[in-house]
Amino acid sequence: MNRSLRFFILLFISILLTACTPPEMDCARSDIYCVGLVTDTGGLQDYGLTQSAWEGIQKALADGVIQKADFIESVDARDYAKNLGTFAETGYDVIVSSGVSLEDETLQAADLYPDSVFIGLDQPADPSRQNFLAVNFPEDQGGFLAGVLAANMTDTGLVGAACETSGIPSNWQSCAGFRAGVEYADLGVIVYITYREDGHREDLFRDEAWGRATALDMIEDGADIIFGVGGGTGQGALLAASQAGAWAIGSEQDQFQVRRDAGARILASVTPDAGPILIQLLGLIPLAQPPSLVMGEMRLSPYHEAGRFIPLALQDTLVELQQALKNGTVSSGVPSEKPEEE
């Protein structure tokens, strides 16, 4: 084959490949709808809030609601502002930040980049910013589901919850919801609720020793199911229950996946589900300004190894109850704020 013929063949192949390769989407264009997700330092696959958010964004992409989706996993909290700015400066229409730890940086980014809409998951609403939306979660409903599960699975008639400080509204709502769920089951089950109120602030969400000691005290008093709430603090309670042969119920993340050392004795976990509300918001944002605060959903994780111990009728009941809580036909009765007398 002579050089000229070979050149033209290679040129033809190059042109053909270029024609078959989709052009890179430019998020600065008004007809390209781009969404970016910035995670906290827990990363994308956290078996909880962030993972459910990405699932929702991916579903919106597959359904044609948006045209481009990307994520940035934050390695260090000092990177939050930079990561948010990376998406904003390249023209992303909507930027989702996952977790309360990004609250300050997200609000600052909303001020710096008014042409982008920011969605803060598990962050307080700020109506003064027109381009910021907050998505919170009905933690009381998650606790309620955990309470009904515990009340129906206990053999001793006594269950407990080891909870990070009640001064954090989401923790208080989750544990108050647990009590309400136990009472809703109406089986005469006694429930203990203990909050970590006197520990060092530096140990918030990571006081495994307190969680462990609190759970063991409850088990010694007869509790055979422990609900652990509050990051590492709650995980300490789960591990103690597992090692003592009691059942445990996790929160915030699918703790079976996160704490394999306790997984065999974890009945289930209650986790926030950001997917459905994100799909809805991503469809609404181009049409009109949605409200500054919207509510996501809570869901029960898979039962994993414990599934064979949980009666199918109870599993069906919990599915129905989750839907009833969502549509408002059943209420936990837990107020939005902790009463002063508690």
How would you describe what is shown here?
This protein is α/β, with parallel strands linked by helices. The protein folds into 2 domains: 34-136, Rossmann fold (3-Layer(aba) Sandwich); 139-271 and 311-327, 3-Layer(aba) Sandwich (Rossmann fold). Helix content is 41%, strand content 19%. The chain has 11 helices and 12 strands. The chain has helices at 3-20, 49-62, 80-89, 103-112, 139-153, 169-185, 208-220, 231-243, 255-258, 275-284, 312-327, and strands spanning 34-38, 68-72, 94-98, 117-121, 132-136, 158-164, 190-196, 225-229, 247-251, 266-273, 293-295, 297-300. Strands 2-1-3-4-5-11 form a 6-stranded parallel sheet, sandwiched between helices. α9 links the parallel β9 (247-251) and β10. The longest helix has 18 residues, at 3-20. The chain is elongated and about 65 Å long. The termini are far apart. Mean pLDDT is 92; it is low at 13-22.
Quickly describe the structure.
The protein has helices at residues 3-20, 49-62, 80-89, 103-112, 139-153, 169-185, 208-220, 231-243, 255-258, 275-284, 312-327; strands at 34-38, 68-72, 94-98, 117-121, 132-136, 158-164, 190-196, 225-229, 247-251, 266-273, 293-295, 297-300. With 342 residues, it is of the alpha/beta class.
